[in-house]
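In practice, a research group might receive sequence data for several interacting partners and want a quick structural hypothesis before committing to experiments. The following worked case mirrors that situation: the sequences arrive first, and a predicted assembly follows.
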Amino acid sequence: MKLKAIGLVNSPFKLKKGSPHQGRFSNEFSTITIYKEYEEALEGIENFSNLIIIYWMDRAGPASLRVVPHGKTEKRGLFSTRAPVRPNPIGLCMVKLVKREDNILTVKWLDALDQSPVLDIKPFVPDIDCL
Amino acid sequence: MKLKAIGLVNSPFKLKKGSPHQGRFSNEFSTITIYKEYEEALEGIENFSNLIIIYWMDRAGPASLRVVPHGKTEKRGLFSTRAPVRPNPIGLCMVKLVKREDNILTVKWLDALDQSPVLDIKPFVPDIDCL
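A structural hypothesis for the assembly, expressed as tokens:
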């Protein structure tokens, strides 16, 4: 199972230190540049107010099966946390789509570090993504 | 960017034909068997009523940049749909956790085909995953 980048994040978050633990709690803007070869796949995306961005957390530390979640003091199982130190460092973030200009999406709430490879974009559909 | 399976889906959906286009609209149960080497990472997962399952859609067709979404008649860009024919066939499904028995999770709403490799499990957190 091999992945290919479909685009790249440009974000104000250059380093893990100082970056938000969840993008939702930040008002910063990021852009996602989709590679030209995939631009056609963006058609219609401007009709969605929110998107789910799947990206590769290329600077996550080695996987750890038990971690202390953000703001907690005791370790628990990794899969009951959103910590980045996962066997597959796949980042998942629901964002607000601010605008699309050709192959560049401007979004809010994205917590990816600058230059993170983007793997997939799916429209956010509350009927299936939420309770 | 290489992925490794952390577990395997056992599902009543053996073939694409006849499987629900979204698991949310099905009442069938599936199980996710997490490989023993990752079992420790499940600690605490039983405290979440809902999980996000990330899996590999190993039987998805070749990527297509424009597709006709389920129930529609006109093509649009792939990234504005949830169709499986993606450059990276990463499946994403919010499910209801019914029970955990050791390394086996029983869930509802999962639309993965039987024997799909599981890549990651994240707790569903409405404050960041929903509006």
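Before designing any experiment, note the following. Chain A has one domain: 7-129. The mean pLDDT of chain A is 95.
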